Amino acid sequence: MAVTDLSIRLRPVADEDDLDMFRRFCVEPGLIGLDWRGFQDVQRVAKRFAEDGFLGERDGRLVVDAGGKRVGFVSYTEGVYAGRGPYFEIGIALLPEFRGRGIGWRAQAMLCEYLFTHSPVQRIQAGTHAENVVEQRSLVKAGFQLEGVVRACEFRDGAWRDGHLFSRLRTDPAPPL
User: Contact at 8 Å (CB) between 8 and 103?
Assistant: First the structure.
């Protein structure tokens, strides 16, 4: 399935099948790649869905749908710089069989447009692993710029690791989808 054959959209979490996908990311170590932080509480998924459907003002998740198939999710979490500058940090997790098809960068660009449309934030940022060159290229395609290396920002696989920080401002041009 080539990306030109896909209609990509973001949608709210809707049903038990969506929740099953989120549960998989909690308990299948290889599914989330470098972001694996150990087993997570799968009951938390249903609790959060019951609370607000994963559509909080300060954080949330949307399902990535490609060609009518559930292929992963995007997330956003609010932060504040110096007590006055709100921003969102975004992330993405795609099921392995849908990676490398151009879905990820498009979904992240769509999430930025959604957040810029429905919130007053000026800045959206995304961090990635120093060794995740594919995600770094994806973020650039989605309109992000590399800001720099964040040293020893993440504890993973028994060691502190560097990350790369990217940002996109409201005034930056949106990439053509």
Answer: yes
The pLDDT value recorded for residue 33 is: 79
Compute the distance between CA of residue 71 and CA of residue 100 in angstroms, rounded to an integer: 12
Give the burial class of 29: count Cβ atoms within 10 A of its Cβ; 0-12 exposed, 13-18 middle, 19 or more buried.
Answer: exposed
Q: What DSSP string runs through 71-122? A: EEEEEEEEEEETTTEEEEEEEEEE-GGGTTSSHHHHHHHHHHHHHHHHS--S
- Name the residue ranges covered by the structural domains of the chain: 3-169
Overall fold of domain 3-169: Aminopeptidase (3.40.630)
At residue 61's C-alpha, the angle toward residues 116 and 139, to 5°, is: 60
Asked if the model's pLDDT at residue 5 lies above 70, the reply is: no
Read off the pLDDT of residues 51-70 as tens digits, 9 standing for 90 and up. 999 999 899 999 999 999 99
d(CA 107, CA 142) in angstroms, rounded, equals: 8
3-state SS class at 30:
coil
